[in-house]
Amino acid sequence: MRKPQATGRKRASNGIFESVRRPEYTGANRCWPCTVANAGIVVGVGILAAIVTPLLSIFVVAVGVTILALRGYVIPYTPRVAPRLLALLGLEASFFSHTERTVGGIGGDSVDGDTVIAALGEAGVLTGGEELALSPDFAHDWHNAIDDVDRESLADAVADAAVTPVQARRFDNDGRTWIIVTDEDGSVASERWLSRPIAIADVAAVRTLKETGVDTRIAVAAAASLRLFLDECPDCGGRVVETTGDGCCGGFGPSGPDHVLACEDCDQRLATLD
């Protein structure tokens, strides 16, 4: 009877860790200035706890380090509060910068841009010369396909649209939905985060392009670029505008702010403008 009890304890322990874990703020997505600041707070509280008893100090630091490793921060709402706090303090220096999580498309073999444009032109998807635009027929079909995407099965739809076998799973946090896509082996190095609007737009684009006779490899490669033509959010229907993408901790880093297309209503980025 002891073995099942041990298994139950292990499962309960894993459940606790999973409930605390925040992969969108750890690993490659970790903001090191936030991590360092939170670590400093943990150490400070540990020093104060040592006044009471060394054992309490060790316990506080151990718990703090564990939470920091699993979540990326200890102080609640750090990713939201830090940019505002540092802005009030006038600390919007480039040191406080964070490389945003990899937000890509469905993914597939790289295809030369000229090849993509030529294929879309031949299929009647793009019109115009130097000023490219979507053909009215394709724009109409694409928007219909966006409406038809099953939001509840979005992860499966993303996996089905990919050129090569991938794993896709849904991740909900802070009221937002992400589709995390990795290569078939599930390697973290290949991890791509698709926001809900991007996943919807790209799945619909691939489906519509394939219906027009465009090769799947070309369709997947073209999906991200087609988002540049969106005038409303594929998810909430809000107006898409050109703006700048803020960085973590109130800074943009040495390269400056990204110029992006984002939804005014849900504040989700849809494309980065070069």
UniProtKB/TrEMBL annotation:
<dbReference type="Pfam" id="PF26236">
    <property type="entry name" value="DUF8054_N"/>
</dbReference>
<feature type="domain" description="DUF8054">
    <location>
        <begin position="231"/>
        <end position="272"/>
    </location>
</feature>
<dbReference type="Pfam" id="PF26237">
    <property type="entry name" value="DUF8054_C"/>
</dbReference>
<dbReference type="InterPro" id="IPR058675">
    <property type="entry name" value="DUF8054_C"/>
</dbReference>
<protein>
    <submittedName>
        <fullName>Uncharacterized protein</fullName>
    </submittedName>
</protein>
<dbReference type="Pfam" id="PF26238">
    <property type="entry name" value="DUF8054_M"/>
</dbReference>
<dbReference type="InterPro" id="IPR058674">
    <property type="entry name" value="DUF8054_N"/>
</dbReference>
<feature type="domain" description="DUF8054">
    <location>
        <begin position="18"/>
        <end position="91"/>
    </location>
</feature>
<feature type="domain" description="DUF8054">
    <location>
        <begin position="117"/>
        <end position="227"/>
    </location>
</feature>
<dbReference type="InterPro" id="IPR058775">
    <property type="entry name" value="DUF8054_M"/>
</dbReference>
